[in-house]
Specification:
The structure is a homodimer of 251-residue chains. With 251 residues, chain A is an alpha/beta fold. The first copy, chain A, contains 9 helices and 12 strands. The first copy, chain A, folds into 2 domains: 160 residues, Molybdenum Cofactor Biosythetic Enzyme, Chain A; 76 residues, Ribosomal protein S10 (Alpha-Beta Plaits, 2-Layer Sandwich). In chain A, the strands form 3 sheets. Chain A has a 6-stranded mixed β-sheet with strand order 2-1-3-8-7-6, with helices on both faces. In chain A, a hairpin with a 2-residue loop joins strand 7 and strand 8.
Chain lengths: 251, 251
């Protein structure tokens, strides 16, 4: 049970997220994906298409977590500055990657169509390895502990699949969710005592306000399934003692 | 046109976002809300329910941006540690706020129902002002340039409405979105030249891959509506020169 904890951060790069134009869904997808591998997502940041911001955030995150996953900014247009910023953060050069040039070039029957802008997508920092994707061909790349992916969700997901074999895995977190109609404020003290009894389980309390009514979802999460089950049972017993009929939800 | 730029950051606090259990939608809502006030959202971070992480992130953000908006962690349960963490970040004490106690206490006919857990929601850092909400009564608070809000979206939105009068406003950013069926790689060079001609406009290029087909949305954003219109016209003329019939989208 003392296996090394594998941690990760997500760095979302893009003005369109900060302006509110686009709702980021990549972080949530990556969070769930890492969960299946037993990797803990510990932090996420969103920064604009500004080199100094990308460099500073990347260097803060890559020195702190096992892995960093970036999304966005690796296309062919002037606002795609991620690859250059990553090279700068690592203090390395950047050049056309022969394999990336071959992959991209093969898409065009007329060589004139493989123009400078499209060739830009083959530029990767020195020492980086490509991450392939079957959706748009243009690859992402890995350098050190940083995985650089596209922002378009379908492409990002294809890249995530392809980089999976390169990730170290941890013990998977087990989660049990219990739904109750009792208000948080009535069960909070008892819930706090249960949390104290199960120090290796993280118990979260998430109220919801929906059309069909109010309620709370109580989530027990931990790497020891026996402890998680024990905490869940203690929560259910407590809720029943308060006159509720708690419901376990499928996770 | 040399009005002060008002900047902001969002700090999302909550294990449930990082585990992938919950898709954060508050950041996108706040981004759009700030946009209507001419405030630039410059960064967003998600941190877990861990005091040291909240303190470090808050102190990094509040010293850098005009405003910081936090969401999550101000309820009655043991995992709600935002208020204490904010007090620690500011190096001030924390105590029951008389007005918050009165607001919350008025909800309970039986004084015994206003238990310690519920009273916890009236604890705010010394010197903070309350942010009211009509949805759940439990208030958020403002301390210095930091606005502390609930994580439940309906409550967060009610708080955002109520704190609006306290925000300084900036010049609103104008945006024009143009949709094209031409691939990014074909127009990238021309688009880059247009960007160079309109330095006070930020031109973004966002490819989409949908069932109905591929395409790109080109967005021109800036505070000078004449420049934005000029950039948009230049983009449309360029696209028409490439044989496309570009379409302006309503923003």
């Amino acid at each position: 049970m003392t296996a090394r904890t594998i941690t990760a951060a997500v760095l979302v790069i893009g003005d369109e997220i900060l302006s509110g134009r686009t709702q980021d869904t990549n972080t949530n997808y990556i969070a769930k994906f890492l969960g299946t591998l037993g990797i803990d997502l510990r932090e996420a940041r969103v920064v604009p298409d500004v080199e100094a911001e990308i460099v500073a955030a990347l260097n803060a995150l890559r020195t702190r977590y096992t892995y960093v996953f970036t999304t966005g900014g690796i296309g062919p247009t002037h606002d795609d500055i991620t690859s250059d910023s990553i090279a700068k953060a690592f203090g390395v050069g950047i050049d056309y990657h022969p394999e990336a040039l071959a992959l991209l070039g093969a898409r065009y029957k007329n060589p004139a169509d493989f123009n400078e802008s499209r060739k830009r997508m083959a530029r990767v920092p020195d020492g980086a390895d490509l991450i392939r994707n079957s959706v748009s061909i243009a690859p992402g790349f890995r350098i050190g502990n940083v995985f650089v992916m596209a922002g378009v969700p379908a492409i990002m997901r294809a890249m995530l699949e392809n980089l999976m074999p390169h990730l170290e895995r941890g013990a998977v977190v087990h989660a049990i969710t219990i739904s109750t109609r009792l208000p948080e404020g009535r069960i909070a003290a008892a819930l706090g005592r249960i949390q104290e009894s199960f120090p290796d389980v993280a118990i979260g309390s998430y109220p919801f306000y929906r059309e069909e009514g109010f309620g709370v979802q109580l989530v027990a999460r931990g790497r020891d399934s026996g402890s998680v089950e024990g905490a869940a049972k203690a929560i259910e017993t407590m809720l029943e003692g308060e006159g509720d009929r708690p419901e376990r939800l499928k996770n």
